[in-house]
Specification:
Helix content: 40-55%
Low-confidence stretches: none
Largest sheet: 2 strands, antiparallel
Radius of gyration: 31 Å
CATH topology of the domain at 44-115: MDM2
Number of helices: 6
Number of strands: 4
Strand order of the largest sheet: 1-2
Order of helices and strands: HHEHEHEHEH
CATH architecture of the domain at 44-115: Orthogonal Bundle
């Protein structure tokens, strides 16, 4: 009986031993020079808005980023965001002619606006 107990103790010790852990070799990521980000030139290119879009943001050529900023300023000024789902924009008369429908998703809006820029 004593032999049986010793054998089970040895078996238990063998299962408790874990495989030795290997140290993960980590390499330091190359650090970029600290400085201001350069804007993407494609976003900064001045584009001319169509007549429909010009009624909202103005007729002068603007970068795409400025067009979207002015459009959001117009939406917030006239309280056109849907109160329940803030992603949706409820179009007024000017925006209906631009979007072609009464309600537009904010992600869909940028796609529609890009068609009105040359």
């Amino acid at each position: 009986m004593a032999k049986a107990k010793k054998a089970t103790k040895k078996a238990a010790k063998a299962t408790k031993k874990a495989a030795p852990k290997k140290a993960a070799a980590k390499k330091a990521a190359p650090k970029k020079a600290a400085g201001k980000r350069k804007p993407n030139p494609a976003f900064m290119k001045a584009l001319t808005p169509s007549n429909t879009l010009a009624a909202i943001v103005g007729a002068s050529p603007l970068p795409r980023t400025e067009v979207v900023k002015k459009l959001w300023a117009y939406i917030k000024k006239h309280d056109l965001q849907d109160s329940k789902n803030r992603r949706n924009i409820n179009a007024d008369d000017k925006l209906k002619s631009l979007f072609g429908k009464a309600t537009v998703n904010m992600f869909e809006m940028t796609k529609i606006v890009s068609k009105h820029l040359k």
